[in-house]
């Protein structure tokens, strides 16, 4: 059954039955958002924010609106497994999506580590305090210290990796029951706590002062630490494949679960601060916690005198036991109840995160950005067993190697950075496909909502550095490893996958000989074929190379490539005609291809065939709209080509073979390509003049010596060229007028450099000359992979966002 | 330092209210779109036209 929802041209095949109701998916969301964070992290967070914890949770609830709206909007339209990773892939391309997926994998896995540690801590406390079982003391293993808690954590990690391998997934009903039990326990806790507070108002309110003992810094840290709760959005959206009427149900589930969960968190914080006294027992546990490596390490030491100890301080030192120990005072058997509820909660959260981290890496394997092993499905169990094993290993490793607060912080940093990318993807998707997508919900004040989302997430993530620099170092290290893997492995695979989807070869006729250097000449207009083919052949001859003539038939984005076959006869005829201009000494191959987009297809062909130069024709008018410089095809090829590019202005001069060629040059990599082309013309018998315009700031002697240098180098190849230097402050105008006055029929120039923020194709000077000079103009650009990758990256983020912001107003 | 506490309470209540308002608005928008009666954002020019 194929779904019509999602992005244009994006097929969503789903075979899952839709049987989850709004209530079911809301419960899934609440279960995921309450998760285990409330059991494991509130103590740590209280230690950072003090009584202000209540406000920290409220602020988190407010800030999460922005990301919640984004998830509601995208989830209503594209509710599929893959979630944020999928949206980033559609909006920003596979390369960017790799990073999102890589971070998502880590984030879900580290969240799993956090839950295993919570589980380990709770089980340990349960066994030692309630059952009086003495367990082994911590053992030093090289750089690690493994106590019973870490051992339990590792066990839980391995157990759930195995359960996921077996394929036992938590069914809807079982999941609902666990969530209902969790929520009920917490509501009872809240009820008892509020009862105490209303019974002892003066005492309770006294405990809220000072409200901000660690200032707003502590508030922000607490916010960052507990933001992990909202990873539940991902779970809601990914369950969307199984939900009735997802367009309406998914956004409502996101909103309802936000509203309920934040309220619960706030009430728990109120009760924790207001209804708990620092008893001698609690005080002693805090002291043990501080020395036993549980509590936060950035807190001042536990005061010597119990009278000086504030509740929040004690909770901070209790760390992940904060809520459990405090609950003992709030309700009967409170500690036991919270421990048991916490154990179930951490296990169910561990199951969900093992599942989701496996799913992300599986999706990436299927997309070929991670090794195919990740997408291997066990023949019997029908589960992605390799992805499961690796995710499980990652979970266990993080749990054992790092202290819990670093793990918590690392998880939060990764999720915050992931949300940042998703917010950005929402802007791009709305901008590019907004009028075609079947949204069930749209956010107001677009694009300000996701922009605020980006700023707040970034702010919180950066602030967490104060709390745990180790978490940031770990996050950065992971990202760098990901970038390394991407460039070494994934980039090529991504490219191949994209090419397969984009361009298909229809016919090919190869010359008998193959040579190393290849000039790719796409031909669309037969009138320009002669000029292009002769120029391309001259360049190929100079480099002992060959030419590849290609013609591309396009089909619309929605149409599968196989249906474009019928239109390729015209392309074949164009190529047959063009062949007459190829000199006999140059091997020439021909291909006819079909693609959705001419520019992308040209790049793909160049990539597949390892072309060294792409030669394009240009009509000579600049477009200068906000989107285009020289034209959509040329712009795309020049910016994304995997090799050198040269553009020939085909309008104007009727002569096909240049006789007098002017080559303005000032050095630099692009000038090399220009010089090469000019030398090709010289080889055809043209008169070539190397040219330089010095402005009042330049040194004339340097320019003359540079040109003489190049002249001598070319002379070694038996090519005679002249040199000229003139002075002028308007370089482009000087070039054009000199060329016209001295009867030059061709000007060949190199590009002027890379633009970072402003989009530059060849540069102002070459493009102006190209437009104004009546004769033939050739602009050349050298392929510089790193510079162009950086430039493309910045353009994607700055350019698209800026465009979207413009259009919104 | 009662004033910090009161300020904190006020901010907390405001933030919580802001969230609830956003949630109610979200439900409203979702229902309107489902009924076909929402005409803002990408729905502004629908009914045969595009936003281009």
- Our Rg estimate of chain B from Cα atoms comes to 19 Å
Number of strands of chain B: 0
Largest sheet composition of chain B = none
Q: Which strand order do you get reading across the main beta sheet of chain A? A: 5-8-7-6-9-10-15-14-11-12-13
Runs of chain B with pLDDT <50, length 5+? 48-52
Q: Which chain pair shows the most residues in contact?
A: A-B, 44 and 34 residues
Structural class of chain B: mainly alpha
* Spans of at least 5 consecutive residues with low confidence of chain A: 1-5, 9-15, 801-809
**Quick one: overall form of chain B?**
rod-shaped
Report the C-alpha radius of gyration of chain A, rounded: 33 Å
* H/E series of chain B: H
How would you state the average pLDDT of chain A, rounded? Answer: 83
The oligomeric status of these chains comes to heterodimer
Overall geometry of chain A comes to elongated
Mean pLDDT of chain B: 84
Question: Strand portion of chain A, in percent?
Answer: 5-15%
Number of helices of chain B: 1
Describe the overall structure.
The complex is a heterodimer of chains A (809) and B (52). By secondary structure, chain A is α/β, with parallel strands linked by helices. Helices cover 60% and strands 10% of the residues of chain A. In chain A, strands 5-8-7-6-9-10-15-14-11-12-13 form an 11-stranded mixed beta sheet, sandwiched between helices. In chain A, strand 3 (139-141) and strand 4 (144-146) form a beta hairpin. In chain A, helix 5 (83-130) packs antiparallel against helix 15, helix 14 (322-330) runs antiparallel to helix 15 (334-366) and helix 19 crosses helix 22. The longest helix of chain A is centred in the N-terminal third of the chain and has 48 residues, at 83-130. Chain B is mainly alpha-helical. Chain B has one helix spanning 2-35. Chain A binds chain B through residues 51-52, 54-55, 58-59, 61-62, 64-65, 68-69, 72, 76, 205, 208-212, 247-248, 251-252, 254-256, 258-259, 262-263, 266, 430, 434-437, 439-444, 446, and chain B through 1-2, 4-5, 7-8, 11-13, 15-16, 18-20, 22-23, 25-27, 29-31, 33-34, 38, 40-43, 45-46, 50-52.
């Amino acid at each position: 059954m194929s779904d019509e929802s999602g992005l244009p041209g994006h097929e969503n095949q789903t075979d899952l039955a839709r049987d989850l109701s709004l209530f079911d998916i809301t419960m899934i969301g609440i279960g995921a958002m309450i998760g285990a964070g409330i059991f494991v992290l509130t103590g740590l967070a209280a230690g950072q924010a003090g009584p202000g914890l209540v406000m920290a949770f409220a602020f988190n609830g407010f800030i999460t609106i922005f990301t919640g709206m984004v998830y509601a909007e995208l989830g209503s339209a594209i509710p599929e497994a893959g979630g944020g990773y999928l949206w980033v892939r559609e909006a920003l391309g596979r390369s960017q999506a790799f990073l999102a997926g890589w971070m998502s994998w880590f984030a879900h896995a580290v969240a799993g580590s956090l839950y295993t540690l919570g589980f380990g801590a709770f089980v340990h406390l349960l066994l030692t305090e309630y059952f009086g079982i003495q367990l082994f003391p911590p053992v030093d293993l090289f750089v690690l210290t493994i106590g019973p808690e870490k051992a339990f954590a590792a066990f839980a990690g391995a157990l759930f990796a195995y359960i996921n391998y077996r394929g036992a997934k938590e069914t809807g009903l079982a999941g609902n029951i666990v969530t209902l039990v969790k929520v009920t326990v917490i509501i009872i806790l809240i009820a008892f706590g509020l009862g105490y507070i209303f019974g002892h108002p003066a005492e309770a309110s006294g405990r809220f002062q000072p409200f901000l003992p660690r200032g707003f810094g502590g508030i922000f840290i607490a916010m960052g630490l507990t933001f992990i709760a909202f990873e539940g959005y991902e779970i809601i959206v990914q369950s969307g494949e199984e939900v009735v009427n997802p367009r309406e149900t998914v956004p409502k589930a996101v909103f309802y679960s936000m509203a309920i969960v934040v309220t619960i968190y706030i009430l728990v914080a109120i009760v924790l601060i207001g209804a708990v006294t620092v008893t001698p027992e609690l005080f002693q546990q805090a002291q043990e916690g501080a020395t036993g490596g549980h509590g936060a390490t950035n807190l001042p030491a536990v005061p010597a005198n119990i009278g000086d100890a504030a509740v929040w301080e004690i909770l901070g030192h209790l760390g992940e036991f904060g809520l459990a120990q405090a609950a003992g005072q709030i309700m009967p058997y409170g500690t036991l109840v919270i421990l048991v509820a916490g154990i179930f909660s951490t296990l169910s959260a561990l199951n969900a995160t093992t599942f989701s981290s496996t799913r992300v890496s599986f999706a990436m394997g299927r997309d070929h950005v991670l090794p195919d092993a990740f997408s291997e499905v066990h023949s019997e169990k029908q589960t992605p067993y390799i992805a499961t094993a690796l995710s499980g290993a990652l979970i266990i490793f993080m749990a054992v190697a790092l202290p819990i607060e670093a793990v918590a912080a690392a998880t939060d940093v990764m999720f915050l950075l992931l949300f940042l990318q998703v917010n950005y993807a929402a802007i791009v998707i709305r901008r590019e496909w907004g009028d075609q997508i079947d949204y069930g919900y749209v956010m107001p004040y677009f694009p300000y909502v996701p922009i605020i989302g980006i700023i707040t997430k970034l702010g919180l993530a950066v602030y967490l550095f104060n709390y745990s620099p180790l978490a940031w170092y770990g996050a950065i290290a992971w990202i760098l490893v990901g970038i390394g893997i991407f460039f070494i492995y994934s980039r090529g695979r991504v490219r191949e996958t994209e090419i397969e989807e984009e361009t298909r070869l229809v016919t090919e006729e190869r010359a008998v000989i193959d040579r190393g250097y290849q000039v790719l000449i796409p031909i669309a207009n037969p009138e320009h074929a002669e000029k292009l083919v002769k120029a391309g052949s001259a360049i190929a001859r100079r480099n002992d190379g060959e030419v590849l003539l290609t013609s591309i038939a396009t089909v619309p984005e929605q149409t599968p490539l196989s249906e474009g076959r019928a239109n390729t006869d015209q392309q074949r005829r164009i190529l047959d005609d063009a062949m007459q201009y190829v000199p006999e000494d140059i091997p020439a191959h021909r291909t006819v291809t079909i693609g959705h987009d001419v520019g992308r297809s040209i790049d793909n062909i160049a990539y597949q065939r390892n072309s060294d130069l792409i030669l394009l024709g240009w009509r000579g008018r600049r477009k200068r709209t906000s989107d285009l410089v020289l034209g959509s095809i040329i712009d795309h090829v020049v910016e994304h080509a995997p090799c050198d590019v040269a553009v020939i202005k085909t309008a104007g001069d009727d002569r096909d073979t240049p006789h007098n060629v002017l080559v303005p040059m000032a050095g630099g990599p692009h000038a090399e390509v220009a010089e090469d082309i000019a030398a090709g013309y010289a080889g055809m018998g043209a008169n070539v003049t190397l040219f330089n315009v010095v402005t009042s700031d330049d040194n004339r002697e340097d320019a003359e010596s540079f040109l003489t240098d190049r002249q001598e180098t070319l002379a070694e190849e038996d090519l005679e060229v002249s040199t000229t230097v003139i002075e002028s402050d308007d370089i482009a105008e000087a070039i054009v007028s000199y060329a016209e006055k001295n009867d030059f029929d061709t000007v060949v120039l190199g590009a002027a450099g890379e633009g970072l923020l402003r989009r530059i194709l060849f540069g102002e000077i070459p493009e102006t000359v190209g437009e104004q000079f009546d004769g033939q103009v050739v602009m050349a650009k050298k392929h510089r992979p790193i510079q162009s990758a950086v430039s493309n990256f910045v353009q994607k983020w700055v350019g698209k966002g800026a465009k979207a912001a413009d259009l919104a107003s | 330092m009662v004033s910090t506490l009161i300020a904190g309470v006020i901010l907390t209540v405001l933030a919580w209210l802001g969230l609830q308002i956003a949630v109610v608005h979200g439900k409203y928008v979702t229902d309107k779109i489902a009924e076909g009666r929402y005409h803002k954002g990408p729905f502004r020019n629908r009914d045969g036209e595009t936003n281009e």
